[in-house]
Amino acid sequence: MPNNQKEIERKNLHSAIWSIADDLRGSVDGWDFKNYVLGIMFYRYISENITSYINNNEHESGNKDFDYAKLSDSDSWEIKDEMIRTKGFFIKPSQLFCNIKKVARHDSNLNITLESIFKAIEASAIGSESEANFKGLFADIDVNSPKLGSTVDKRNEKLVKLLDGIGNMNLGNYQDNTIDAFGDAYEYLMGMYASKAGKSGGGILHSSRSIWITN
User: Fold this and answer.
1) 3-state secondary structure of 142
2) N or C: which end of the chain has fewer CB within 10 A?
3) For the segment 32-55, what is each residue's pLDDT rounded down to a tens digit?
4) d(CA 57, CA 53)
5) Which pTM value belongs to this model?
């Protein structure tokens, strides 16, 4: 790996965040923007986390063509309890970040879709050892906030841009990256909106490290 790989990854991450911020300039308050970016990043990460875990197990068992993202929700229920025991949470295939991003532009109820997914993810952890990490995790991502837009359509336009922007981030495999993407994104966003640095904002950062790194 090149010696400057870490700086390349950091530069690409910062560039992607700046691009999203520039795209939403004037529509979302800086501090709220930070929460949306970190929250959607976390949603993408845990979606990829559980997909990678399930796929790897299936591939090792000889099912080389298996892809959890293409599995029906009904077929996924048989592994729900196992995933909650081993991962601490569960996401149905239809709720995965990659699948929501694909149809987001055509979902007139995208705000409701995301709200129900975030609630379902938090609820899946109830009773597990990770319950404290997930409780209220997405509380700062108000998909119905008028700060996103004066109408549902305008809010959904912003949500599509957030999903597209974060989905297009070249984050690769978390374990293969040389930077802590969440930590670096958090620090970069704090720097962008330093005037409000006294506010809380590390909840998702802490949970991301607890959930992703240990699994």
Assistant:
1) coil
2) N
3) 788 888 889 889 989 998 999 999
4) 6
5) 0.84
